[in-house]
Amino acid sequence: MSDKTFNTSFSTMKYLRAIAHRGKGSIAVILPDTVSSTRYTEFDAPYLKKAFLMAGLKPSQFIIQNAQGSDTTQYTDAQADIARGAKVLLLDALDSTTGAVIEAYAKARGVKVIDYDRLTLGGARTYYVSFNNVAVGTLIGKGLLACLSAWKISKPVVYVMKGSPTDNNATLFAQGYDAVLNKAGYNTKTGSANTILENVGTWTPTVAQTDFQGAYAAHPSINAVVTPNDENAAPIITYLQSKGLKPKSMPFTGQDATLTGFQNIISGYQCGTVYKPIWLEAQAAAALAVYLRAGVRPPKGLVNGVSVDPQATINPLKHVPSVLLTAEWVTATQIQKTVIKDRVITASQLCTKVAPTVAGTHQPTYAQDCATYGIK
Fold first, then answer.
1. Which domains does the chain have, with CATH numbers?
2. 187 with 179: CB under 8 angstroms?
3. Rounded distance between C-alpha atoms, residue 376 and residue 88, angstroms
4. Fewer Cβ neighbours under 10 Å: the N or C end of the chain?
5. Does 182 have pLDDT greater than 80?
């Protein structure tokens, strides 16, 4: 088994049934929230459930929870899971402070932890499963530059946004797109005439919109926006549409391959999105958890990399054995052969008519956009 053997049918997971049968106790998954991205409810939770079941675990042998944005809930869920016999925690921590506390608690009780999607800085996990997040940021930066050219944006003034400063992934994403933008002449360290910087950063879409509105009021020349995910981009695009924004006049970037993100892409308001196959990440994480639950070392083909925790105080925790997966930049012309092919979304979801407006008139459907890009 390796990171290359998983597929959208989850059929590889059946080869773990003998390992699952050997394991003792349960596996507990604690996801962070439903605000920073819809991925946790749309993709992660159902994919993880399917992976565990296909691996031969019974529903009583795993639990999938969501902390709903609460540090306290995430910690108390972990305590309760361990008290009920969890031997492995699959943790996507809200922030490294909370994650490190949970991981120390688990370690003291002999419970193994896998960091899922986000590395907990200063933590005591055994493995880490994610994508190469600097590479994800690089895709965002290159995607924006390609769109500036394709949409013929003259004299670009780029507003550079970031995710939450408490999320290590947001830092890594920014490293990626900052490097691309700086090389292209945009100053993401101090800002400049062609680069406007966000002050702090957030994963809360309403806060992202408020931050953008303040920047746009102060710098009405902004005509391109680096948004680190689809969720942050969506309300800003809606706001600008209410002000008369035309298609292909102000490019936005994105990440997480959400339905709303793709509708903004095919209608000409978002350049593209980073598609991270969550079905792949979920299977890799579930496989690691099954191996750990049985006390079996996972195969080298699965653990394909090492991640560095700069806050670790001892070497075994500093270099974290990792499964690092590959993401892809997806534009309108690539939707059919990526997310539609992988059944992440369906054409019927993407191309349907949207709800009536308050005034009683309908916004345009996405059917024509889908036809334009061969989405079916």
1. 11-131+276-328 (3.40.50.2300), 133-275 (3.40.50.2300)
2. no
3. 41
4. C
5. yes
